[in-house]
Each structure stands twice: as C-alpha cells, then as structure tokens.
Design brief:
The chain is an alpha/beta fold. The protein contains 20 helices and 15 strands.
Length: 528
C-alpha cells in the first residue's frame, strides 16, 4: 500500500528531561530546587516517563543568552525520538516570549512534549489553539511579573541617584563601608586617595603621557582593589578610566546622565577639566568621544564567544612594519586560564564562505530561473490558500447557524440536555479543527510575495553581496545568517539561522520555492 494511504502510527512519548531552575545562587541555597525535583519525580513515576537527563539551572530567563537552556534545546533536537520536557510550572522554563519560537518549533516538529505540572498542561505537536493560547498567556503573566519587579528596582535606583547615593562598588580611591547602624556608606581610601590626587595634579601639568603617568602610578604603589596576586598594579586602561571619571570632583555619571553625589570630592572641577584638556591635546580620546571610538566597525564585533571560557571574542587591528593592516580575533578572558589563541579574521571569513555563502550562491542565469519558479509557486499557493480559507469561512458560518438551531431546539424542549451537549461538543470540535486548518494556510499578499522573493534572491546572490558590502553591512548579514557563534581554536562553531538553514541543506535550488511556501512564517520574520 502506498505510504500516504497507510494508517498513521502514533508513538507514545516515554522518555523525559527534568528541568529545574532558580534565578540566583541565593535561591539555589534554599529549598526551591528540591521542591521542584520532588514534584517532577512523582509526576514522571505516575506517568511512566523514563528520566534520561536532568538540568538543574541557576540563571535568569531575562538576562544573558541562557547557555544551559540552549544546551537543553540542542540535546532534544539531536535526540532520536520524541522526548518530554517536564517542569514544575511555566515561569520555571520561561518568563519571556523571546524563547517561544525555538521551543514551539521543536513542539511542532514532534521533537518534544512540554509538561507543566502546576498548570496541569501538556503541549504536543497536536495541541489545540486554546491550549497554546493558555501557554502564551502564562508566559505573558510571568513576563509581566518580572517587568513589574524590574520597574520597582529601576525606580529605587533612580531615587538613590537623585539623592546622590552611589549604588554600586566605590571607585578606586574610595571604600565601601558600613556605619554604626549597618547602613552602606562610601568613605575615602586613606592609602589610594592621596595617590589619585597626586596623579591628577601631575597629569594636568602636561609633562606626562598616559604611558608615563601609568609608570608613575606604579612607582607610587597604586594597586587595584581586586588583587589576585602580589603587586597587582593598576592597568593603563583602568588609570585612564580614573582620570576621566567625574566622580572625583563630585558628580557621578550613570548612563550618560550626571548627578551630584554626597561623598567628599578628591579634586576640584577646574583640575578635572585641565586633565581632560591634556587628553585632547595629547590626541587621546576624552569622555566625549570614547563612544565614537568604540564604534570602529569590525565584521565580528559582539558576534562570537569563546568556546572554552564563554567570554566575548574581541577584534583588534594590528599594523605590520610594511604598513599592511590585519584584523585578529582574541578572547577577552580576564585571566590566564583560557587557552584560546589569537586567530586571523580572514581564517574565519574563509570558513564561512566555504561552509555557508558558497553553498547558497547561484550563477545569474539560475537566479533568474529561480525567481520565475518562486513567483509562480507563490501565486499558485496564494490562489489555493485564498480559496481554501473562503471555503473554511463558509463552513464556519454554516456551523454557527447549525449551533443556533441546536440551541433553539433545546430551549423548545425538542432535545434532551444530554443530546444537546453531545451535538454541541461535536460542533465545537469541528469548529476548532477548521480554525486550526485555516491557521496553516496564510493569506499571501503582495507585500509577503515581495519580501519572500527578496530574501530568496538575496540568498542566491549572497556571496557577491557580502564581498561588495561595507564592514557594517557584512556584520548585519552574518547576524542574519548565523547565530550561537563560538570560537574553538581556529574553527568557528555556529548555528545557521532560519530559514537559511533549510536552503543550505537543500542542494537542489529548484526546491527552494517549495521550501519558501512551506515555511512562510520564517521567511516573513526576516527583516532586510
């Protein structure tokens, strides 16, 4: 018998992952994790779910890139059959809708089921629209709770700033202390404060460069407060930050806004301004143009992390004696424990060209042919979808009339309550099935056609576009194509972004139009 006429075999999910999470180390020391685990263990036992892996996570759902969470998604994606993710409640798994897409894709593909104990809810690839809506509402409520907390924290911090209170670690030259009432205060550092005053005075004379003033700081014994070894003298960058920090004359700068603080100043405003003028005269970047300096364009700026230590990989330019400029990628690790070496940017660019750009680039004639096929496929699908949705709308209208008549018969006593409820349940189920079907067939308007056509055309011409683009545009293109980038030695590990992953996996470009139609949501979400 042909495959399409064979009866569908539904395999029951028997394996499970336990997912428990707390937001901070303080919560981790409490009983929250143990309580979550106990509930989940009992649930898995009662439902005969075999636990194959456990994820006990201490991370916020709202900050960072949630490495452990992504590790779990990667695991289930590679798992050979459907696996259940069992969590205590929705807000333990997510408090933001930014994680919805990846989770929902795995659910729709039948890779996962998601079991929420507190909400008594199981999401599968066949979940109804109302169940998915209930899930999203719970995520929305969790997000609302977090935003409310965030607002209260921001309001408290704003009040402290307006009162002149510095909320964090004291700058070098000051110390965090507790007064007799155990209230947090900031006082002058009797050792470092006089040295910093001397350095401001010396640099204002114009007799020093940043290099020589740094040498003087070492001779005077100015060390960092975070000493990990003996003689941890302040670095040149840290000293530059000291000499450009308005805190020392009486103002604190927070996110570009200035507030008068309540602590004793080390220097006068006049002396501070003299130092800033010396920085300008020496060709160094002062506080007003450091932002501009930091915007030097690099292709991989903020795109790659170190595979070993997780720190950001930072690009830097080196000029050889011949005058030739090279860009290198290096790990920004704060200690010597990471073994990631420096890599020439061109090595990574060549890898991306071979593994990504070359695989979807097409000759001009094939691009022309592809566009014709794509436009025809979109037009045919648009016509089919419009007809189908029109028929579904008609059927829904007929169901509404049928439901109204059924109610009339019941109210007139022509139907028993049991018969009425049975017939009504059938109508509700039929309506839900029609609405679910209608959701699968999008209305393809002119804007969507143009956007999909633009994305597919760009993919076919991506190598030429990339080579002709500016550094900033190259960075944007790579951000659109690849994500989760990690440098492992001289190799870049990454994930291809949707929908480009499907185009790269398909060696036959004539199938691209069908891929575009089958994944309209993914193509529609791409912004060029």
């Amino acid at each position: 018998m042909r495959k399409k006429y064979q009866k569908k075999i539904v395999e029951k999910c028997t394996d499970a992952i336990i997912f428990t999470r707390v937001s901070s180390e303080k919560q981790e020391k409490g009983a929250s994790i143990d309580a979550q685990k106990e509930s989940i263990y009992n649930y898995c036992t009662n439902h005969k779910l075999n636990i194959v892996k456990e994820y006990e996570i201490t991370e916020s759902t709202m900050k960072g890139d949630r490495k452990k969470y992504k590790e779990m998604l990667s695991f289930v994606q590679k798992y050979p059959k459907t696996i259940a993710i069992v969590v205590n409640c929705v807000d333990r798994l997510q408090r933001s809708d930014r994680d919805n897409n990846a989770l929902d894709d795995l659910r729709r593909d039948g890779k996962i089921e998601v079991h929420f104990l507190k909400e008594n809810m199981v999401l599968t690839k066949d979940s109804r629209g109302d169940e998915l809506l209930f899930w999203k509402m719970n995520v929305l409520m969790a997000n609302s709770y977090v935003l409310s907390l965030s607002y209260n924290v921001k309001r408290s911090l704003k009040l402290l700033r307006e009162q002149g209170v510095w909320p964090g670690e004291a700058p070098l030259g000051y110390l965090n202390k507790r007064d007799d009432n155990n209230k947090a205060i900031i006082v002058l550092d009797p050792i470092r404060a006089p040295i910093i005053q001397r350095l401001f005075s010396e640099y204002a004379t114009g007799a020093h460069s940043l290099k020589t003033i740094c040498q003087l700081a070492k001779e005077l014994g100015l060390s960092s407060k975070r000493k990990k070894r003996a003689a941890a003298f302040i670095s040149r960058n840290a000293l530059y930050d000291v000499l450009t920090n308005p805190f020392y004359y009486g103002e604190m700068c927070i996110k570009g806004e200035f507030y008068k603080h309540i602590y004793p100043p080390l220097i006068s405003k006049e002396l501070f301004d003299q130092v800033q003028n010396q920085f300008v005269g020496n060709g160094n970047h002062n506080r007003n143009n450091t932002a501009e300096y930091s915007k030097t364009p690099y292709i991989f700026r903020k795109l790659i992390h170190c595979k070993e230590c997780g720190c950001l990989i930072t690009p830097e330019t080196k000029v050889k004696k011949s005058g030739k400029r090279y860009t290198y990628l290096r790990c920004a690790h704060p200690n010597k424990n990471c073994h990631q070496g420096i890599v020439n940017e061109n090595v990574i660019l060549e890898q991306i060209k071979n593994e990504v750009l070359n695989k979807i680039s097409l000759p001009p004639k094939l691009q022309e042919l592809l566009q014709k096929h794509l436009i025809k496929q979109l037009n045919d699908t648009a016509q089919f979808n419009t007809t189908l949705k029109s028929n579904i709308t008609k059927q829904l209208t007929e169901l509404k009339i049928k439901e109204d008549k059924l109610l009339d018969f019941y109210l007139e006593g022509k139907l028993s309550q049991a018969t009425y409820e049975e017939k009504q349940a059938q109508i509700i189920q039929e309506r839900q099935e029609l609405e679910t079907t209608a959701e699968k067939y999008k209305i393809i308007d002119a804007n969507m056609k143009a956007n999909v056509n633009k994305i597919v055309s760009m993919a076919g011409n991506i190598l030429y576009i990339f080579e002709q683009a500016t550094t900033t545009d190259k960075q944007k293109l790579l951000s659109m194509l690849i994500t989760d980038c990690q440098l492992n030695g001289t190799k870049l590990e990454y994930t291809i972004c949707k929908p480009f992953d499907k185009l790269i996996q398909c060696a036959d470009y004539t199938q691209w139009p069908m891929i575009a139609v089958e994944h309209l949501d993914e193509f529609e979400n791409i912004k060029i």
